């Protein structure tokens, strides 16, 4: 019986007529198929060439995608006569306004499905964790019927936040190798990839001028869109809310099921960056920005001065906008929009001794003006080649000749009094005759270690001013240096410390300090007894953080103790 469904296209009707001919071929070879309408007989006879091709070729699962007029996201794929519905990841209207064109098109080629028993029985050699029944997965709609598929044809995100990363992996690894991808889709993807660079440049300019984007990032949009589709996090992966079984009592605190269901109809879109910054500042109160307050936080009586209530683990995946809508039990502590007084330390007015050096304050260097970088403790914490290099490097304060010296590759201008390091063998040479990295100006004390390492590789290997014995010793150490020999060498009873940290502590002992304009020599250190505010907790704080006044503090404290004992 011919199919007379008026909704089918003429081509589909003709293919069904061919199928009827194929079934009745052995019964009535010479007689035409019995039909009720003469027009259908003429249609079949006029399409004999199409039927002949169909009858000669073996039956192959035909993948014809039929768009649904009611829901463009729900489609069906016919595989050998079996139509299986699937749901696209794409949201046509929202994607077009919030995502780049490439992501918008990629999402139209990916379906969202839930794992069935047949999916669990399939082999997956590279999969780390086994999949579970009803777990949510993503797969390509073009090769879903193929027995052998290209890499990343199917992905199972471990959380809703990983949906974006799964799609990105499919974009890079799968669609360029997909065997079932139509040529028109392949050409469209290639065209969109070529235009991706220009789109990114346009979006950067657009955000700078407008700053009113509906979504803060592509990843945030993927997360919010997945929540709106009904995806929620559960132990073991992502699930659809309609496939979830009731939660056990012990699992309710670590799951977002109830929270997501309650907020499903009221989830707001991701806020613009400016509003997001305001929400973030209200959620987490900002403490004092002064350096003294930051150091005082280390001496709080409570080990967790900013203790936050123990929220469910999966709640951290939600955006701050959604988190602000949630209401927790009153008996649990939480950070509110009001700054609690016990969270902020008391302000102490003390002179800035070990924080930042004012540009107007006079900078003083040692009497000689130049000191060696090496110290007697180097052999306890550094390897042989670093100990040797530090003896060939000196610390100096830039004078007028250093400031005016030509430096073609230097990014920032040198300021009078700024501290630098240089090779002691090239120091007397004119600036034009010095080789590469003979002089370095680290931006901070943490950069001294990297500056010395660069001098070791770039300068001392080519330095022409090295004495013969020094050069021979350096070549010996440089050639014998291996990864196992570069570790920090310690002696028995010495405290192990990384080389970078030791460089900072050594610089502090030399009287160096970080400033906004680089490293400087510290001003003559004041005596604790002459500072009216340097008593009690303030003096103890600076003695603990400033090794240059530590001895003075404890000496003055012992003197005061002796005086009180005599009185």
From TrEMBL:
Residues 63-84, 193-214 are annotated as: Disordered. Residues 198-210 have a biased composition (Basic residues). It comes from the Eukaryota. This is Uncharacterized protein. It comes from Fistulifera solaris (Oleaginous diatom).
């Amino acid at each position: 019986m011919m199919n007379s469904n008026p909704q089918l296209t003429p081509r589909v009707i003709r293919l069904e007529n061919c199928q009827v001919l194929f079934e009745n071929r052995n019964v009535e070879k010479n007689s035409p198929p019995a039909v009720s309408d003469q027009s259908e007989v003429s249609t079949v006879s006029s399409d004999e060439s199409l039927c002949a091709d169909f009858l000669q070729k073996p039956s192959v699962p035909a993948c014809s995608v039929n768009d649904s007029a009611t829901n463009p996201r729900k489609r069906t794929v016919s595989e050998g006569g079996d139509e299986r519905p699937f749901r696209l990841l794409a949201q046509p209207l929202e994607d077009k306004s919030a995502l780049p064109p490439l992501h918008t098109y990629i999402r139209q080629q990916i379906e969202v499905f839930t794992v069935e028993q047949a999916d669990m029985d399939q082999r997956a050699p590279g999969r780390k964790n086994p999949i579970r029944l009803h777990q949510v997965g993503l797969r390509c709609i073009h090769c879903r019927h193929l027995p052998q598929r290209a890499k990343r044809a199917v992905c199972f995100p471990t959380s809703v936040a990983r949906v974006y990363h799964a799609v990105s992996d499919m974009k890079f690894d799968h669609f360029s190798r997909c065997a079932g991808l139509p040529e028109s889709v392949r050409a469209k993807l290639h065209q969109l990839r070529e235009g991706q660079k220009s789109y990114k440049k346009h979006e950067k300019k657009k955000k700078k001028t407008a700053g009113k984007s509906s979504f803060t990032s592509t990843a945030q949009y993927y997360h919010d869109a997945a929540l709106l589709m009904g995806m929620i996090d559960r132990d073991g992966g992502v699930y659809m809310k309609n496939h979830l079984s009731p939660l056990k009592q012990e699992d309710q605190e670590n799951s977002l099921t109830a929270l997501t269901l309650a907020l499903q109809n009221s989830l707001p879109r991701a806020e613009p960056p400016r509003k997001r910054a305001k929400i973030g500042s209200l959620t987490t109160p900002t403490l004092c920005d002064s350096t003294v307050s930051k150091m005082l936080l280390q001496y709080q009586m409570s080990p967790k001065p900013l203790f936050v209530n123990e929220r469910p683990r999966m709640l951290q995946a939600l955006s701050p906008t959604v988190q602000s809508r949630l209401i927790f039990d009153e008996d649990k502590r939480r950070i509110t929009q009001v700054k609690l007084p016990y969270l902020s330390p008391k302000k102490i007015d003390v002179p800035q001794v070990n924080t930042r050096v004012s540009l107007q304050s006079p900078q003083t260097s040692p009497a000689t003006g130049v000191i060696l970088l090496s110290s007697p403790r180097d052999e306890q914490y550094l390897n042989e080649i670093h100990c040797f290099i530090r003896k060939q490097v000196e610390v100096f304060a830039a004078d007028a000749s250093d400031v005016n010296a030509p430096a073609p590759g230097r990014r920032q201008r040198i300021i009078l009094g700024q501290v630098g390091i240089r090779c002691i063998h090239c120091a007397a040479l004119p600036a034009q005759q010095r080789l590469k990295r003979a002089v370095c100006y680290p931006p901070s004390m943490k950069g001294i270690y990297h500056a010395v390492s660069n001098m070791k590789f770039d300068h001392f290997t080519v330095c022409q001013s090295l004495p013969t014995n020094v050069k021979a010793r350096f070549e010996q150490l440089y050639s014998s240096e291996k990864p196992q020999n570069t570790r920090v060498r310690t002696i028995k009873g010495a405290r192990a410390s990384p080389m970078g940290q030791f460089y900072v502590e050594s610089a502090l002992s030399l009287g160096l300090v970080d400033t906004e304009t680089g490293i400087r020599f510290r001003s003559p250190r004041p005596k604790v007894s002459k500072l009216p505010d340097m008593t009690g907790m303030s003096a103890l704080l600076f003695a603990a953080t400033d090794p240059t006044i530590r001895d003075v503090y404890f000496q003055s404290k012992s003197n005061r103790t002796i005086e009180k004992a005599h009185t």
